Amino acid sequence: MSLKSILKDYLVRIREQRAQPNSSAELSYRDHLSWLFAEVATELKSPAKFTNEAKTGAEVPGRPDYAVTDGLNEIGYVEAEALTTDLDHMAGATLEQNKRLKENLHNFLLTNHFDFQLFVDGKKELRARLPEPAEQGKITVSDAVVEDFQRLL
Question: 114 φ, ψ to 5°?
Answer without folding.
Answer: -120, -40
